TrEMBL record:
Residues 1-27 form the signal peptide. This is Glycosyl hydrolase family 32 N-terminal domain-containing protein. Pfam families: Glyco_hydro_32N. The lineage of its organism: Bacteria, Pseudomonadati, Pseudomonadota, Alphaproteobacteria, Sphingomonadales. InterPro entries: Glyco_hydro_32_N (IPR013148), Glyco_hydro_beta-prop_sf (IPR023296).
Length: 352
């Protein structure tokens, strides 16, 4: 339908002040290494919005897509907001555009001090390849997911923690103990932990996450913790892996919601930036390993013009490859808080 306004690398770098890649062999190749990761063509409508059904877990808004496939069926997990907090649901689709809600898979537990108001499943362990149908991987014969939970009622209130959950069928999950707490980390994450994204590289699990500083206004950056046994987790010494840019950068305030994939010897991290202008945009960092990334000098999915579904925010990525095309799901926000419209949108690598 409509192409993103900033897809040319040089134009984007000059317009919003992203620093260029360092002088690396792969960055000097004639073919731009960011090209396979691009999804400039937006679908003009939300593919999923708040249900509007009184009392439903996703009555007010939907957020944080995570897409994968099982056989010939596509699935999307998402968090729903009902005015009290987040809970996690799932929907299915035959074509990545038309989605059927299947219900809640992770619900709040009033008797649990960790999840009494919120539980947001952010990722399920899947294959790492960018150009893959995002098939799920199992650990000891079971599905493994990463979630985060805020301690208080409301919209992302309090310092959230991160944990894991296990399932045999994707619909019933058993929550494990908290594995990362903000108070155990550095200053950049003491305000609370956000979306965890879990991958496996060799015999090591990598858990990427964004976190915020204390006080207001806070800043968000992205870090990494690793484990071989899913019990003991070690924060990476180079954290935060993705820090905030300078005052003109699109990630000046937030560098958040990582999604990490591999492609032909490169590692790519999709993430979103919140700029000083108050708009959130989808960005990319690339590297030769899953622990070292350099920011790409372009915006992958920009906000739309006034009146469009993503006029305020285009953020929180999830990707899947199907029929020769890369699909990039994201949370689209229009309007003004507290009367904004928050739903899930999609862009892809070829025209609709």
């Amino acid at each position: 339908m409509r192409m993103n306004r900033r897809t040319a690398m040089a134009a984007s770098a000059g317009a919003i002040g992203i620093s260029l890649w360092p002088d690396m062999a792969w960055a000097r190749q004639p073919a731009n290494p960011a090209a396979p990761f691009r999804t400039p063509w937006k679908y003009p409508k939300l593919i999923l919005g708040g249900s509007g059904i009184p009392g439903s877990f996703d009555e007010k808004a939907v957020d944080c897509p995570f897409v994968f496939s099982v056989g010939d069926t596509f699935y999307l997990t998402y968090v729903g907001f009902d005015g009290t907090g987040y809970q996690t649901g799932i929907c299915s689709s035959p074509d990545l555009i038309n989605w059927t809600r299947l219900g809640v898979i992770m619900a709040r537990d009033p008797a649990d001090p960790v999840t009494r108001f919120n539980i947001a499943c952010a990722s399920i362990l899947r294959e790492n390849e960018l150009q893959s149908p995002a098939r799920l991987l199992k650990v000891h014969g079971r599905h493994l997911a990463a979630w985060h939970a805020y301690p208080n009622a409301g919209y992302e209130e309090g310092a959230a923690v991160i944990g894991l959950a296990w399932s045999d069928d994707l619909f019933r999950w058993k929550r494990g103990p908290v594995i990362l707490r903000p108070e155990d980390g550095a200053e950049w994450e003491r305000g609370g932990l956000y979306k965890p994204y879990l991958i496996k590289v060799g015999d090591t699990f990598h858990l990427y996450y964004n976190a915020k500083t204390t006080g207001r206004p806070w800043k968000e950056q992205t870090g990494l913790a690793t484990s071989r046994d899913l019990v003991t987790w070690t924060r990476h010494p180079a954290n935060p892996l993705i820090g905030n840019g300078d005052g003109t950068a699109p990630d000046f305030r937030f560098a958040s919601d990582p999604v990490v994939v591999s492609h032909r010897g490169l590692w790519g991290m999709y993430y979103f930036g919140l700029a000083g202008d108050g708009f959130a945009r989808e960005l990319l960092a690339l590297g030769s390993s899953p622990t070292r990334f350099h920011k790409a000098p372009e915006v992958l999915v920009d906000v739309g013009p006034p009146g469009t579904i993503d006029e305020k925010y285009a953020h929180k990525p999830s990707v899947i490859h199907h029929d020769g095309t890369l699909y990039h799901f994201y949370c689209a926000v229009s309007g003004k808080w507290p009367n904004e419209t928050r739903g899930i949108a999609v862009a892809r690598s070829r025209p609709w």
